[in-house]
Write a structure and sequence with these properties.
The protein is of the alpha+beta class. The chain has a single domain, classed as YaeB-like fold (2-Layer Sandwich), CATH 3.30.2310.20. 38% of the residues lie in helices and 29% in strands. It has 2 helices and 5 strands. A 5-stranded mixed sheet has the order 1-5-4-3-2. A hairpin with a 2-residue loop joins strand 3 and strand 4. The longest helix has 19 residues. The protein is globular. The mean pLDDT is 92. This is Plasmid stabilization system protein ParE. Keywords: Toxin-antitoxin system. InterPro entries: RelE/ParE_toxin (IPR007712), RelE/ParE_toxin_dom_sf (IPR035093).
Length: 97
């Protein structure tokens, strides 16, 4: 059974920053919209199959690769918490988990 997905404030902020970057860079909202669809579909997949991601060193925290991004999420008894959406081209020490 699928679990409810809850995007944390930080993960929403990450997504907003990513969309803003691509909007300014391309002067078009086409790519940010495609990323939004990819992130939402990935969240749905995680909801249905919580263990699909790669286990991290943090308790109950997994990561799922989506193009150049990793979605970090925590599996809770009643929900999936999306913690971060991180660009893999960034410094790996800046994940802030």
């Amino acid at each position: 059974m699928a679990k409810k997905v809850r995007w944390t404030t930080r993960s929403i902020s990450d997504r907003t920053d990513i969309y803003r970057y691509w909007l300014e860079r391309n002067q078009s909202d086409s790519y940010p919209e495609k990323l939004e669809q990819l992130f939402e579909k990935s969240a749905e997949l995680i909801s249905n199959f919580p263990n699909i991601g790669i286990r991290t060193d943090y308790r109950n925290v997994y990561s799922k690769v989506v193009r150049h991004y990793k979605i970090f999420y925590r599996i809770e008894p009643n929900e999936i918490q999306i913690l971060r959406v991180w660009d893999t081209r960034q410094n790996p020490n800046s994940t802030g988990l």
